[in-house]
Amino acid sequence: MVHHANDDTILGKAYDGRLVRRLAKYVMPYWRQFSVAILLLIGAILSDLLPPLLLQRAIDGPIRAGAVDGVWPYFVAFVSTLLINFVFRYSHSYFINSVGQQVMKDLRVAIFRHVQYLSLSFFNRNPVGRLITRITNDVDALNEFLTQGVVMIVADLLTLVGIIVVMFVLNWRLALISLATLPVLVLIVSIYQRFMRATYRLVRQRLARINAFLSEQISGILVTQLFNAEERSRMAFARLSDDYMQANIRSVLIFAIFIPSVNLLAAIGTAALLWGGGNGVLAGWASLGMLVAFIQYLERAFQPIRNLAERYTVLQSAMASAERIFAVLDTEAEVRDPVHPRSLPTPVRGEIELRNVVFGYHPNEPVLRGINLHIPAGQSVAIVGATGAGKSSLVGLLARFYDVQEGSITLDGIDIRELKQAELRRHIAAVPQDPVCFSGTIASNIRLHNDAISDEQVRAAAEMVGAHRFIERLPGGYNHEVRERGANLSIGQRQLLAFARVIAFNPEVLLILDEATSSVDTETEALIQTALTRLMRGRTSIIIAHRLSTIRHVDRIVVLHKGRVVEDGTHDELLARRGYYYRLYQLQFAGMTG
Amino acid sequence: MYHLRLLFPYIYRYRHRMIAGLLVAAFGAAVSALSPLVLRLAVDSLADGTIEPHRLLWFGDALIGLAVIDGGMKFVQRMLIAVTSYRIENDLRADLFDRLLSFDQMFYQQNYTGDLMARLTNDLSAVRQFLGPGLNGAATAVLTFLAATVLMMLVDPLLALIVVLLLPMVTIVFVAIGGRMRQAFHRVQNQFGVLSTRAQENFAGIRTVKAFAQEEAEIAVFTADNERYRKLNLHYVLLSGTLWPAMTLCLGLITALILLVGGQQVAAGTLTIGELVQFNAYLALLAFPMIILGWMVNLFQQATASLERLNDILRYQPMISSPSTPRLPPGYGSIEFRKVGVRANHSDQWLLRDLSFQVPAGKVLAVVGATGAGKTTLVNLLGRVRDPDEGQVLIDGIDVRELELAALRRMIGYVPQESFLFSMPLRENIGFGVATVDPARLDHVIEMSRLSNDLDQFPDGIDTMVGERGVTLSGGQKQRVAIARALIRDPRILILDDALSSVDTHTAAQILAGLRAEMNGRTTIIIAQRIATVRDADQIIVLDDGQIVERGSHQELLARNGRYAAMYRRELLAAELEREE
Ligand SMILES: Nc1ncnc2c1ncn2[C@@H]1O[C@H](COP(=O)(O)OP(=O)(O)OP(=O)(O)O)[C@@H](O)[C@H]1O
Ligand SMILES: Nc1ncnc2c1ncn2[C@@H]1O[C@H](COP(=O)(O)OP(=O)(O)OP(=O)(O)O)[C@@H](O)[C@H]1O
Ligand SMILES: [Mg+2]
Ligand SMILES: [Mg+2]
Prior knowledge:
The structure holds two protein chains of two kinds.
Chain A: H1 17-27, H2 31-48, H3 50-65, H4 71-116, H5 120-125, H6 128-170, H7 172-179, H8 182-219, H9 221-226, H10 230-283, H11 288-330, E1 352-359, E2 368-375, E3 380-385, H12 391-398, E4 406-411, E5 414-415, H13 421-427, E6 428-431, E7 440-441, H14 442-447, H15 455-464, H16 468-473, E8 481-482, H17 491-505, E9 510-514, H18 522-536, E10 540-544, E11 556-561, E12 564-569, H19 571-577, H20 580-593
Helix pairs in contact in A: 2-4, 2-6, 3-4, 3-11, 4-6, 6-7, 6-11, 7-10, 7-11, 8-10, 8-11, 10-11, 15-17, 19-20
Chain B: H1 8-13, H2 15-32, H3 35-48, H4 56-101, H5 105-110, H6 113-155, H7 157-166, H8 168-204, H9 206-211, H10 215-268, H11 273-315, E1 335-343, E2 350-359, E3 364-369, H12 375-380, E4 390-395, E5 398-399, H13 405-411, E6 412-415, H14 426-430, H15 439-448, H16 475-487, E7 493-497, H17 505-517, E8 523-527, H18 531-534, E9 539-544, E10 547-552, H19 554-560, H20 563-580
Parallel strand pairs in B: 3-8, 3-9, 6-7, 7-8
Antiparallel strand pairs in B: 1-2, 1-4, 4-5, 9-10
Helix pairs in contact in B: 2-4, 2-6, 3-4, 3-11, 4-6, 6-7, 6-11, 7-10, 8-10, 8-11, 10-11, 15-16, 19-20
The complex binds adenosine-5'-triphosphate (2 copies) and magnesium ion (2 copies).
């Protein structure tokens, strides 16, 4: 029921220089703000070091001396330090977050742009849900990395170093005593990381599975219900959810052991200070104020190390996300624009020639096995053939959704691989077999985001395909709300909208209709025929249809069988041949008249 | 608040662990409040200079001992409360999914897929955070605060008052900023929804985007949405950016005050240095719990907001459900529609109106009609994808609303107009609706649906993985998998909703012949746009604008010379035209 073959793999790495360098490129444009942020952070860290020192001076000075008013200057100094620290920290947050948000936006747009131009084969392999994750969660993880991860780890290290330096300057003996537990602490943290890494990977992986499962189940809920498969789905989901919980419980366990151990170590450190430092006070090589200050410094030295444990997860997830994002950005479109594109001779006529075209979705499994086809400019051709014969694949090649494996396709004598895709598609309009509707309005479904298409043109297109009649009756007419995937329209209505879209875009020379009216009734279809005949005039057109009534106006018929052209000619020629087309014809009409 | 009640049954289920967790937390809090006391005794004895060096060890031992006990308590507390929060999350998730499985199409039309997923993941996780770290932290915070207050009062009431009165300021700062953060966050979330829906639809419809060379326009729209998102997000992070500095400032100010007042007292001789140190230690001990308390308030608010969204799911009453005293269908498969009327959601527009007809068990009914005439709506009434607003749909003489839902659906093999396939191997897609797949039956339906012609083209034959929604199959292949999926159930009632539209006439004829041969009393409803597919039906009805305008057999309808005959002539005309050309 559930397949894990394509799981997002998550590596446990917390730092990968190569990835970080690539990320740095996105930060470069904002390096000024970024540097300011870092400077402010250093200021904040330095001002953080002062309070325990002030405390020490106050205790060893006025407080022990019994000077009541002598405490005031220390109070004032203390408060000023705090205010300065506040200003530093706040402005740091301002700068670093502005950079972070900018970088995120740039990255998102970069990914989206890149994905827009990837080939269809990429989309066959990658479920939509996974691509969305790249743009959302993965980018967020990188932001965390930028604003919390790197910067804060540097800050933590600086704090630690700062404290150690101050300690040694103040009293090297107390410093040595305080730091005695540090090596053990480092050991504990590294053990913790080892365990956490594995668990974290598990948690993420299992969450990804839950998401993938949910997304598909929600889309296909009707099928599950009508086929009484609820129990099975429930069990599969319970299993996924349970796995996820177990992984989480493991992480709780690790955390529940880690935190108390660190606290215990801190207590041991303080105890050592009390004993060793206390002796120092008695022996006179340390003051009481100094001892108190050290107890505070010790507490502060532990904090960055505790943080490190959490920062580590941020790093890990950022590296995993960066890796996946760059994997997408590194995916090269299989269908690419040439370096030196040629342009079509004007006016474009629309002559098409396929020479020995071989193509398949998997290597060594050809779907088209050597197609030769010449379509003169302005001709209309119907492609018929059994299901799975390769008709949709063939027209997909013309629009260059995929590239041929062998042979060539030329438009007006120029290999379509030498053209820019945008130019090619300006001349071609294709209605794909599965019409897609987007959430929005009826009008926005016809014009997409092309504002150059006016309301009148939208309406004219709808009228031409006979969609106007039903649109008019919808509440709101052209502004009627269309739900996700066109769920509140009938299938035929969705096909009509997709058809209207082609008309509205008004392709210059080439028209491709792949089963564009398979679910539309013959009466509406007859209406469309009129529009279509007008549209086909002066344009090369390729029409795929199973219903012969759909193709009655074409000049020529091509029969495709198992990836080969087996019959080619006019209606009468093919009937006379008494081959596949003849049988098709018999099936549909002979019985009717007889 | 109201929505919180939703959690009670789940918490009740784990009440023993929860209560034990709280007790342990209380004990732990009391223990951890003792260590500053030890510190004070040590410092004071050092200040006096009266202590013998080896006695210093005692203080150290006491500190370590307290840390060990405290650590043990914290461990047990986490294992009780945090683990329970994950269990509750798990239970809730299972229940939510269970509900989703029972909801009707109306619900799914009103809710976006992405939004529903967010509820089962993000919202659920917000609730868990409140139950786990939230409750955990709050319990520790309140109890530590109480224990520390008592001990501080015993030492010096004035300093104690400063701490006790000022410290909750930290929490208030958190709550105040947090409130504004939440509003900002809400806007961020909404814009996020816009953004991901945009990406989702773009990726799902990429074929269309490419075919019309709309990439640049799409990028422009996405970039604009993204810029809006960036601005909102920046507003939010700047608010949240004040949080920590502001809290650090508050805590620092209190420490400064203690230093001033306490220091002066020490200087004046009314307080010992050890006591001053003790107060400082309490501040350090309490700082984190106070922050947690503020955080807890936010978690609480987020959790209630999320619970409200979860409650939408838990309280939704599906319009389609099994009756309380269900009847079992006798299982012959006769169908009757009695004055059936269906309205478009919440409007007075009729999709179907005053529809009556009968299909005796084992007979074939064909439905034809214009695009949008209501054919799909009609067959959807049988499997109760929705219920009629008027009239009755009866199977074997019983209103479908009185039948046990699962039993009703088990009688029906449905081939929807839009073939939805799951991303699993072909074999599992076909066997989707049966408990166990009988190999002989599998071979049979593969043969019947003519998938046998295509199997050798697939890389792994019957075990080939199908892409999301079936993208790696041709249109006709998808439809035939859907047909096989319905046939393998050996249903009493078979519904083919335009199920051969993408299948070539040749293959379609073979499939129809196969179906007819093994029809053996299977009631069949066929919707189609091709005469060849419907002409052999026992009864044909012509639907127009939700009403039956003609009915009869092929011959009768031709004789009536109405719409059906016109449809027939159109196809014929096409043939004739072609013949003449
Ligand atoms: N994206 C894809 N990945 C892998 N295989 C594919 C993909 N699309 C189609 N195929 C396979 O290629 C073959 C030809 O498919 P194609 O869609 O071209 O057929 P068709 O002639 O259009 O059929 P139909 O009439 O059913 O639409 C089929 O065997 C199909 O399974
Ligand atoms: N979920 C829905 N909400 C509101 N209106 C709907 C919904 N589904 C369909 N409709 C409307 O109901 C009418 C009938 O739709 P239905 O899907 O039954 O048509 P159909 O006869 O099956 O058409 P087709 O041949 O195109 O599949 C159409 O006008 C359609 O817009
Ligand atoms: Mg096709
Ligand atoms: Mg329909």
